[in-house]
Each structure stands twice: as C-alpha cells, then as structure tokens.
Specification:
The chain is an alpha/beta fold. The protein contains 7 helices and 9 strands, in the order E-H-H-E-H-E-H-E-H-E-E-E-H-E-H-E. Helix content is about 30%, strand content about 15%. The longest helix is centred in the C-terminal third of the chain and has 13 residues.
C-alpha cells in the first residue's frame, strides 16, 4: 500500500517483541522465499524495511506510543487480545471515536478480542471498565489455522487407522459441523470432547 501511495504518510509501529523477532528471521532468510515474493522484492526492495515502519523492542519505546497525539498505525499482536502490549494500546485508544481497531482472525468466546468484535459498549482491561467508542473492523482472511476443508482432508487420512478422533478446540457449532463432515467422508469414531472431561486411552 505504501509503495502504491494508497495510505497516508503516517508512521507505522510494530510493537510486539515476538513479531519483531520473527520478522528478523524472515529478513535473514530471503533466499527461502517463493518465486512470487522474490519477484516482489526484486521490484520493490525489502518489504520489511519500509521507510515509515518502526520496530519497537523496548518497553519504554512502547510506552511512548501512549502519549502520541498525531495519527499512527500501531500493530500489536496477542491472540484474542488477552495479554501483552496490545492491552496497553487498547486501554489508551479504545474510547476515542477517531481510532479504528482492526481485529485480524478469529476471536474465541469470553475473550477481550471477542467482546471488541461484538462491539460491546464497555470492555474490561486490567480489571477496569473502558468505553469502546473506537470504530471496530475485522479482517478474517489472515489465519495460520487450518480451515474446515483442510481439517476434513487431514481427518480423512486417518479414516481406517484411528481408533478415535476427538474434537477439542472450537465453538460448538463449528465442532458439530466438522464432526458431520468427517463422518460424511467415512471417518468413524469422531466425537466432540467436553471441556474438562477426562480421556481414557
């Protein structure tokens, strides 16, 4: 977007130590990128070092973002918004209607991320209620998790060998759908494991 001038000239802060470290690993191993990415890099340069991106490692630098007055994009990672630096950014920015919170990926029930996606009027961060006035947007296209069809294909590999397949992670509707799809493919002994219940082998 920056290279095509499709976003305003505002700073972008990547404030997630793990993300910064993983980005460095990618930067060190560009020889392993696929052909499409290699062509993009050849045409556009290093995608990890755009002029407006600042990678934040130190807690002090992260805290400085809280006092910023000018527009900025803050990228901070934590699954379900339950821990890490993202909590500080949400606390400091959720009540300002000029802000946008972009949630990427699935947010499980009973998590802060889900409450934000549901646009609840108040959200609790660090035990304190905050008004949620920021605009909330979701982008569900980016996920490292397997989708429904990939899970069915994976389960199919075990159709004649597995004594049991226990579905343990997901919401009830999704688990029931996956169970039905696996059984329709001939996979036997598929059950949904109730949370907290023991499994005997």
């Amino acid at each position: 977007l920056e290279m095509k001038n499709r976003i305003p000239d505002i700073p972008v802060f990547v404030d997630s130590p793990l993300t910064v470290n993983v980005t460095e690993v990618f930067r060190l191993h560009t020889d392993l990128f696929d052909e499409d990415m290699a062509k993009t890099m050849e045409a556009s340069g290093d995608p990890f070092q755009l002029r407006r991106i600042r990678y934040i490692r130190d807690v002090e630098q992260s805290m400085e973002l809280n006092s910023m007055e000018e527009p900025a994009i803050i990228i901070s990672a934590a699954g379900m918004c339950e821990f890490g630096r993202i909590l500080h950014h949400l606390r400091n920015n959720c009540a300002d209607e000029r802000n946008t919170i972009l949630i990427i990926g699935f947010q499980a029930k009973n998590t802060l991320g889900r409450r934000i996606v549901e646009r609840q009027k108040e959200i609790k961060i660090f035990g304190i209620k905050h008004l949620l006035k920021a605009e909330v947007k979701t982008l569900n296209a980016l996920s490292a998790h397997a989708g429904h069809s990939e899970l069915v294909a994976f389960g199919r590999r075990f159709e004649n060998r597995a004594q049991r397949i226990l579905l343990v992670h997901g919401e009830n509707g999704a688990l029931e759908s996956l169970q039905g799809a696996l059984e329709a493919e001939g996979v036997q002994h598929v059950s949904i494991q109730e949370e907290g219940s023991p499994v005997e082998f």
